[in-house]
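Justification of resources, computational component.

The compute hours requested in this renewal are based largely on the per-chain cost of generating structure records like the one below. Each record pairs the submitted sequence with a full structure-token output. That output is archived, and it is also reused by downstream analysis tasks.
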Amino acid sequence: MPEIAATGSKADLPTPGNPESLAIGWESWDSAIARSDDPMVESAARALAGNARAKALLDAIFAHSPFLSQLATSDARFTTGLLTDGPDAALDGILAGVAEAPEGETEAALKTRLRVAKKRAALTIALADIGGDWPLEKVTGGLSAIAESCLKAAGDFCLREIARRGAIDLRHENDPSLESGLVVLGMGKLGARELNYSSDIDIILLFDPDVMQTSQPGELQSAMVRLARQMLRVMDERTADGYVFRTDLRLRPDPSATPLAISVLAAEAYYESLGQNWERAAMIKARPVAGDLEAGARFLEWLRPFIWRKHLDFAAIQDIHSIKRQINAHRGIGGIQALGHNVKLGGGGIREIEFFAQTQQLIWGGRIPDLRISRTKEAIDGLVEQGQVEHETAADLKTAYDFLRRVEHRLQMVADEQTHELPDDPEDFARFARFLGYATGDDFAAELTAHLKKVQGHYGMLFNDAPALSAEAGLDGLDGGNLVFTGTDPDPDTLATIRKMGFAEPERVDGLIRTWHHGRYRAMRSTRSRELLTELMPVLLRALADTPEPDKTILRFDGFLKVLPGGVQLFSMFHSNPHLLGLVVEITGKAPRLAEHMGNHAGILDCVLTADFFDPPPDRAALAEELEEALASCRDLEDTLLAVRRWANDRRFQVGVQRLDKQIAPLDASRALSDIAETALGGLLPRIAEELADTYGHIPGGEIAIVAMGRLGSREMTAASDLDLIFVYDTAEGAAESDGPKPLAPGQYYGRLTQRMINGVTAMMTEGPLYEVDMRLRPSGTKGPLATSLTAFRQYHDESAWTWERMALVRARAVAGTGDLKDRVNRAIDAVLHEPVDPEKLLRDAADMRARIAKEKTSDCIWDVKNLRGGLVDIAFIIQYLTLRHIGDHPDIRDPNTMDSLAKLRDARVLAPHHCETMMRAQELWMGLLGILAETIEGTLTKDKEEQISRALANDLVRVAGAADFDGLKRMMMETAQAVFDIYRELVDEPAAELPPVEEDAPPAPVRAEPRPTPNPAKHPLLRRRPK
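The structure output for this chain reads:
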């Protein structure tokens, strides 16, 4: 029979390094033989004692390895058989024993059986390694085989257990794993059959519900989690017999959020949408090792396109480079010292050899199937065959790999610990060197250092000649553009690519991205967040480049990243919700107001993912109730002002996002923005009034109302709209002053209240101003008091108002107030508008005023949709003129909203249906375009700034207009403007031109029947510059 003792010579074996340990070991061995009370064991022991090599082998383990000594002496029968029959026969017998499950075996019995088998296998493989009987591949293959065998035994047992409990039905009682649907993937070194001596085993447990037979499909997930826990107990739990293998399930998809065993469908969904490049690398070595091997093979075949991408992938390569930098930073690239060196993670170590092969497999394996190899040395050979690695380099790496793995195994044999660090004490180092067969520590250190330096040199050259990236991953259309952000200096090809993408300052962009990769922001400090952002980078850059001003956008995005408290959650959200990333970039680049709010309140993105975020905006009653709830806990006015701003900003952000995401029609967005403003004013007014009353008391019977003019009045606000307001108050008859400790007259009282209200709305706080306010439409304009009594308001419009002021009232409505004053003010406005007018005077004044506005603010830029002839101003003048002209005959003709007003004019037959249709289409077009431009372009878009319109913005404008393309949109705009201007001329200009001239000496013709002063048209607010 074969004998280890008869193979080789004593000189091949390690020399004893610790006489005391050696003596203790032999004493324990002799005691074990005596205790065996087995003549065959005693006979075998005597025969082995007379063999010099067998004695030297036992000397080696007794002197150097307490763990192996304990294994050998605690199982003398097995040890003598091993030394007599050899390791091949011993391991075959162990594996056969593991595969034979006794009928009715309990979990406790299984645990004992597997632990004993593992210990015997550990001793067998160690002696074969120390004795030089097996090469590295056979050693690691033996360790992997015992792990697989034990996993299969554990899996079969656990499948029988859950079947016994009724969770599943087994197709094959004698082979439970066959067609079971349970997938046990061996990862890392187990998958590659490269287990080290004291390695953990990394596995992923999956199950295929379509394969598993069960009458309780709803309970299958929980049953599989119980199975996973039981498998872990069987394999990992320490008992009196030790453990089988430390077992790690953390390589499964999203381990912090997923159960121990997940369905194949869930895993597929994860890898399809969230799979990272490091997971691609991990899957290179994945292999079904237990359970349903066919189901496991099917899963890996499905996963093949994820692991092996056919094209060079920027995100993958960037991650690989990033990992290389992290390795270098972890262990330093400087000199190598043998003492205390980590043979796995240290410079020139095992990790660098594995990384050298694996990363190039990731890059080339998608295109070259022959590189899809799990074992490290075979992968290096494959790279040589494909011309990716030089023969000399490969030889150095493979030789070093064999050497370092041998050192690693010997380190772990000492005490069954998963260690990779050499002793840092010279004496201990020398003793360990003797365990490896070296005469001195210096001899070992010299050979070790030579290998480490060779590996480090080859590894340092890795990626020095990295190829340019393909034109994919966001680089399409750039003629094979390059995006590389590694090294210390910008890559010229990368700068050229960034410039081609549309950035004006590529060096600045390059610097920003390098800052992100270096983890200098809180959000980028974790490896996971950097990996996530790396994967997002190509599409992120393309999205940034497609914004109106890419260089400004990337700066805004950089500011957004700076203030984020963490990146993993947000970037994971981007991965699982790609639409959200596009939305954030779109907001950052195209909507400055929304971007500012998002940057200051990153948590609002959580709201974007809620089920109701894209629901239609609530009505005013619901908004008011929501705001009241938000204000209920405010302690003082400052709290109130902040809370109103937060609420309004969040609601405006929602409307803005819905508009950008095409979830809300432009006119509906305008109404929603107007409702938010109206609700905010309604929430603030009574609280500011009460705060004033604390000092000055109340005016007897006093009430105040806010009249909205302009876009708020017509419910046509945009993101850039300010508030045109008039404050009207009323008091009890004879009320002379307030009743507080500091009494004020009504005019002073409500003037102060108005000023405080304006301050409350416009004040710059941490949440910014609520709105800008314009008060110039109040009676007498800037010369008049801030607040006007209801009597004075009515009197002014009866006796002194100019034609344009009467016209402006067409869009007026009271939007907030105390008591019933709001309703009374609305009735007063209606009363003013229903007063009879001089038709000729109205027509002449309207035409003259529009002509003056056109002369003062002439615009031939089609993007100035407000002042363009045929734009919003012309539509407003037509409506206001027709309303005042015909309201006497049609009392219900007036409506503040443009679209509703046009409909009423048409229904009253004041406006021809075809004119109404033309103007409605124009109003919808202009408001749609204005809504987008208000959020996407800072300032006014003039003719010479049309280049600010990026492809993405142009697409938005084309979409909202319903045009075929951008040129078609501009033609549509010009045709629409011309059509509206033609209507304006037909209804206003041409009839006004036919009026008889006004005699210079004749008294002025009033707009009303009663005489009053001639209006001064130069005072129209459209002719005056609004303060910035």
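The first helix runs from residue 19 to 36. The mean pLDDT is 87.
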